[in-house]
Amino acid sequence: MINAFLRRKPVSQYGWFGDYSGWAEAQKECGGYDAVNILEACKNSLLKVKNGEAVYERDSVLFDKIEYSWAALAGFLRCALENDGKLHVLDFGGSLGSSYYQNRGFLSVLKEFSWSIVEQKHFVDCGKENFEDGVLNFYETIDLCLMDRQPNVLFLSSVLQYLERPYEWIKRFTSLNVDYIILDLTGLIDAKDRITVQKVPPEIYQASYPCWLLNKQKVIDAFSERYMCLSQFNAFAGNELFVDGQKFGYGGFILKRK
Question: N or C, where is the chain less crowded by C-beta within 10 Å?
Answer without folding.
Answer: C
